[in-house]
Amino acid sequence: MQLVTEDNVTELAEARWGTAHDPRTAEVLTALVRHLHAFAREVRLTEAEWMAAVQWLTRTGQISDEKREEFILASDVLGLSMLVVQMNHHFDKAATPATVLGPFHIDGSPELEYGADMSDGLPGTPLYVHGTVRDLDGKLVSGGVLDVWQADNDGAYESQLDVDEARLRAKYTTREDGTYCVRTIAPLGYGIPMDGPVGELIGRTDISPNRPAHVHFLINVPGYEPLITHLFREGAPYLDSDVVFGTKQELVVAFTEHAPGPTPDGGESAVPFLTAEYDFVLQPQA
Ligand code: BEZ
Ligand code: FE
User: Which end of the chain has fewer beta carbons closer than 10 Å to its terminal beta carbon, N or C?
Assistant: First the structure.
């Protein structure tokens, strides 16, 4: 019979999980066993703490569904999502950097024309985000799809609300000359959901649950690396303390105030509005 001791259990478990049929699965699972055991040893994990952790994971699963991604949120606040983004997107310095996807992206957003309003009358200061999509050589990219989403003035994303229609999300396509124009409302900073297991943990710390004001972009163009990123409002609170570690200097953009008058899409605004100009630079696919 196999004699299992405190000293040899890690080796035995590693060997067992090393039998995974796919070599990468074996590599990942044996490393997971090694690090989990090392963690338990380092903190001298008690049985009560182990049970509390299991129950926390259970609650995290129970609160999750197709609209609420509590495990993504957990990964985000632990800095794991951003680590994975950084390790997997070593873009050229001139390319627009990637940041976290977050838990609120919804597939299948409606396709809107250049300058069409994705806020559809929701309260807020009108904002035009406009510019170009280019490659590293400065070549303008036409037909690129920008999938855009953001929170409303109460900090809520569509998936957190009970609504039937697409809300503050849309897809825009770059024109022949590589230009795009998103009409929306100025995003505000917001706090991540605190009413679940992630919030429970944050509440036991001095961590600020806030994110700086931003708009999300997912840009897909054949031949280029898909780009998941945000644009942050320059001067916004929490740029230095983003709870999910998602801010990057290159993604901070001035929101310029304008009196009523001509707008970047060639239209006219009867009320004051903001513009943010940004040229996205895509990394060619490896
Ligand atoms: C977001 O920006 O939508 C987000 C990202 C990570 C965690 C929570 C929210
Ligand atoms: Fe967000």
Answer: N
